[in-house]
Specification:
456 residues, alpha/beta, Rossmann fold, Helicase, Ruva Protein, domain 3, five-stranded parallel sheet, 12 strands
């Protein structure tokens, strides 16, 4: 159990440290000001906080209330230990989420230790429940395929991160499976039955992204014909997953920062703020530090998100998992696929810049185009790409797909190439039209025209 003691008086902190230390198996951190306390909150995950209400030098301000509010947003149990007999101060602290209030002149082992022991037991029970869930790896991690050391480490990190309610930043290359990691974090979290809502920040115009996240009141802007509850309202105690967080406009980055700092948000056109009690998980494949340096991403938001980072390994870091992945992807195909041992070895020797997603699409192509019979080395080289080789057109798997269509005997090859590439790009980006257009190097309207024709 980890506890933070925030009091500007050293003698008071010493008394509290002595009392709290009697619990046993507890890690204690001390802060003499709001600034020191917030710095510790940004670098550690605490179970409980003992906080004095007057932390300024003159003792005239109730700045400890800021820490009580901060504790609530981070799911930390706050206990006020103060010398103030001000009834209004007590009420304010309790309204902001303080668990208990103890006067310093009444401070004793009998008043403090039972409360802290209860918190410790509750946290231990929560961890036990999560660990029991985690042991059932077949049901909780069915989509995280692999037994490599990298995947074992990833699972362990996910289990630890799930214990906290703090924001999480999931990083990794395109196609490495970041969204699957987010699903695992949510499944192992404290509210697995609550909603998991995901929004691709690069897929919608700024106004629509704001409305999707925060909601809006009827008539708040042109086209707002009815009230709309955004993700922060709909998620409840669940998880809001912000994919491609680097694409979030700067103005909305400021509003997201407010949610992470205060646990409150304001719908478009609303007069009052609302509470958000869930969790924010963000994902990106780009280097956010470079975005910060170029002024395209807020530095304060980056540090808020980057407290708990989960790095998803690329496929080149876990080549030993390829046989399992091939078997997993082959199981879901309309025709049976059987790889020779030499073919599997060849797949492990090839480059997969699109990571697991590209490998899955490779298996899909084999299912459609490969002749009947075992998948041999020759077929792997025909439909795949050797490590270090340079295809005639480009290193993009879409170019290889285009060549396959052009080599076929199908009529209207150019039209077929266009439709096939767009369909494949949409598959690679999970239906994200903006990302598919970016992948193809065309305008979004080109992709929209194709999907409109397909649906008509």
């Amino acid at each position: 159990m980890r506890i933070l003691i925030a009091d500007d008086e050293r003698s008071a902190r010493c008394v509290l440290v002595d009392l709290v230390g009697r619990i046993g198996d507890v890690e204690i951190h001390e802060a003499s000001s709001v600034v020191e306390a917030k710095a510790l909150l940004d670098t550690h995950v605490f179970d409980a906080m003992l906080v004095d209400l007057r932390l300024s030098e003159d003792g005239g301000e109730l700045d400890g209330l800021l820490l009580v509010a901060e504790a609530r947003t981070r799911s930390i149990t706050a206990i006020v230990v103060s010398g103030s007999h001000d009834v209004d101060a007590v009420r304010s602290a309790m309204r902001m989420g303080a668990h208990d209030y103890v006067l310093k002149d009444e401070l004793s082992e009998e008043l403090i230790l039972p409360v802290l022991c209860s918190i410790k037991e509750q946290r231990a029970l929560e961890r036990e429940v999560i660990e029991l869930r985690a042991r059932r790896s077949d049901s909780l991690f069915p989509w995280l395929i692999g037994t490599s050391q990298q995947m074992q480490q990833l699972r362990n990190v996910i289990k630890r991160v799930a214990l906290s309610s703090r924001p999480v930043l999931v990083t990794g290359q395109t196609g490495s499976g970041k969204e699957l990691v987010v699903r695992a974090i949510h499944a192992l979290g404290r509210r697995p039955d609550a909603p998991l809502l995901d929004l691709n920040c690069g897929a919608f115009p700024e106004t629509l992204v704001e409305s999707q996240l925060f909601g809006h009141e009827k008539g708040s802007f042109t086209g707002a014909e009815r009230k709309h509850e955004g993700f922060f309202a709909s998620a409840g105690d669940g998880t809001v997953f912000l994919d491609e967080i680097a694409e979030l406009p700067l103005e909305l980055q400021a509003k997201l920062l407010r949610v992470l700092e205060t646990g409150t948000y304001r719908p478009i056109g609303a007069n009052a703020s609302r509470k958000f009690t869930g969790r924010v998980v963000a994902a990106t494949y780009v280097d956010l530090e470079q975005r910060v340096e170029s002024g395209k991403f807020r530095e304060d938001l980056y540090y808020r998100l980057n407290v708990l980072e989960v790095q998803v390994p690329g496929l080149e870091e876990r080549l030993d998992d390829i046989p399992l992945l091939l078997g997993h992807f082959a199981e879901g195909q309309p025709r049976p696929l059987q790889f020779t041992e030499a073919a599997v070895l060849r797949v492990q020797q090839m480059r997969w810049p699109g990571n697991v997603r590209q490998l899955r699409n490779f298996v899909d192509r084999l299912t459609v185009f490969a002749p009947e019979g075992p998948i041999t080395v020759e077929l792997v080289e025909q439909f795949g790409r050797a490590r270090g080789s340079k295809p005639p057109l480009s290193n993009d798997p879409l170019a290889e797909l285009a060549r396959e269509v052009l080599r076929s005997d199908a009529p209207d090859k150019l039209q077929l190439v266009e439709s096939t590439l767009i369909d494949q790009a949409l598959r690679l980006t999970d239906g994200n039209k903006t990302a598919a257009a970016r992948l193809l190097g065309v305008h979004r309207k080109v992709v929209e025209r194709r999907t409109d024709r397909a649906s008509s």
